[in-house]
Design goal:
Elements: H1 2-7, H2 9-21, H3 30-43, E1 46-51, E2 55-61, E3 67-73, H4 100-115, E4 124-130, H5 138-144, E5 155-162, E6 170-172, E7 175-178, E8 180-189, E9 193-194, H6 204-222, E10 229-238, E11 244-245, E12 248-257, H7 260-280, E13 284-288, E14 297-299, H8 301-315, E15 320-322, H9 333-336, E16 341-347, H10 370-389
Parallel strand pairs: 3-4, 3-5, 5-16, 6-15
Antiparallel strand pairs: 1-2, 2-4, 6-16, 7-14, 8-12, 8-13, 9-11, 10-12
Helix pairs in contact: 2-4, 3-4, 4-10, 6-7, 8-10
The structure holds nickel (II) ion (NI).
Residues 98, 100, 133, 160 line the site of nickel (II) ion (NI).
């Protein structure tokens, strides 16, 4: 499969670069979705669209069971690209900084590989191109709109490019791989006034500072040190002038755990702490958890073993590594909530000893030599799983 994929390298890379130049944010993946559909049309592969606004589900095989799904996400991030590449983003303030352009191109590569051996497919392979991975819970919406039904998906596989691993290495683990994650928003309201007369105000700035500090002790004093947990306040907005105490301060941040129970506990305690610290300082705190809480990505042990063996045969056992869990969130979790599956990361580190820029960084780049590898992994996993499930 890898030899076959290598021959498609230029084709896959071309698609990736086209997508990279035209990044689109969540639920706005109109052109991206059109590229996916155009490519599927060229390949003669049928699909259902739109699903979840811009999503596409393509199908290959005899339309019966067993059924395996392969998934890619299509959305970009509101980041201004600074990477020095010839195919740099043409849209100011938007960038494929999480490699979802690579994911979409690799899955189209797999579709072409599998189309070329369609007669060998006994069962159904679904190709899920979803919108809004970056906080919009596009995967949840695809599931709600039936991406996993008719025929019912029995296994699902997904890949994320990973700049921290050498090009072509594959990593994952059985059980929880990525964290449950959600957003927190805290608005501290007091009473504004002249900064020279603090006693006539109720100061939301000093109160917000106390809340930020106090939130740190939830993780350090209330959680088992061997249990991963994160509370990070990442934005603080309040005040306009150096000599005015503002009326309110707004903060946002993220809360993460490896379990939904853990996430709920942290949310509850963050609410309690913020509300009570505010009250002790004669202010009020309104605490909310806007957006979509992502469940943890739970890898099925059988699916991971199968993926590990498959990748080992393709790339050599040294190229396959079992990784510790990562506190990043991923909406692939919405699929693994419903069907067994495995999410793996694929090394896209550049050759040489240059600096590594992580995903969501304006200088992030991916080693494109990994693109045919990703396509081959997708295709092999599907064929192998159909055999295992028969
Ligand atoms: Ni991503």
């Amino acid at each position: 499969m890898l030899t076959h994929a290598a021959k498609l390298s230029d084709w896959i890379t071309g698609i990736r670069r086209e997508l990279h130049q035209h990044p689109e944010l969540m639920y706005e993946e109109v052109k991206t979705s059109a590229v996916v559909r155009r490519t599927l049309d060229e390949l003669g592969i049928s699909y259902k669209s739109p699903m979840a606004v811009t999503g596409v589900v393509a199908t290959l095989g005899d339309g019966k069971g067993p059924c395996v799904a392969l998934r890619a996400d299509m959305d970009a991030l509101p980041i201004h690209e600074e990477a020095d590449v010839a195919f740099r983003s043409k849209i100011d303030g938007k960038m494929h900084a999480c490699g979802h352009d690579c994911h979409t191109a690799m899955l189209l590569g797999a579709a072409r590989l599998l189309k070329e051996r369609e007669s060998e497919i006994h069962g159904t392979i679904k190709f899920i191109f979803q919108p809004a991975e970056e906080g919009g819970a596009g995967g949840d919406r695809m599931c709600a709109e039936g991406a996993l039904n008719n025929p019912d998906v029995q296994r699902i596989f997904g890949i994320h490019v990973w700049p921290y691993l050498p090009m072509g290495a594959v990593g994952s683990r059985p059980g929880v791989f990525l964290a449950a994650a959600g957003e927190i928003e805290i608005t501290v309201t007091g009473k504004g006034g002249h900064a020279a007369l603090p006693h006539t105000t109720l100061d939301p700035v000093s109160t917000a500072a106390k809340i930020i500090c106090e939130l740190q002790t939830i993780v350090s004093r209330e959680i088992d040190p061997l249990e991963p947990a994160v509370i990070s306040i990442t934005t603080v907005h309040g005040g306009e002038a150096f000599n005015v105490i503002p009326q309110s301060v707004r903060m946002t941040g993220t809360i993460r755990s490896l379990t939904m129970d853990g996430l709920r506990f942290l949310q509850e305690r963050a609410r309690d702490v913020a509300t009570h610290v505010a009250k002790a300082n004669r202010c009020e705190a309104a605490v909310g958890f806007p957006g979509h809480d992502y469940p943890p990505v739970l890898n099925d042990a059988t699916c991971w073993n199968s993926a590990r063996e498959m990748a080992g045969e393709m790339l050599g056992t040294n190229a396959v590594v079992e990784l510790p869990p990562v506190m990043g969130g991923e909406d692939f979790a919405f699929y693994t909530q419903r069907v067994p599956g495995v999410f793996v990361v694929l090394g896209v580190k550049q050759d040489g000893d240059g600096p590594v820029y992580g995903v969501h960084h304006p200088l992030f780049t991916a080693n494109e030599k990994a693109l045919p590898v990703g396509a081959a992994l997708h295709a092999s996993y599907a064929m192998r799983s159909l055999e295992e499930l028969r």
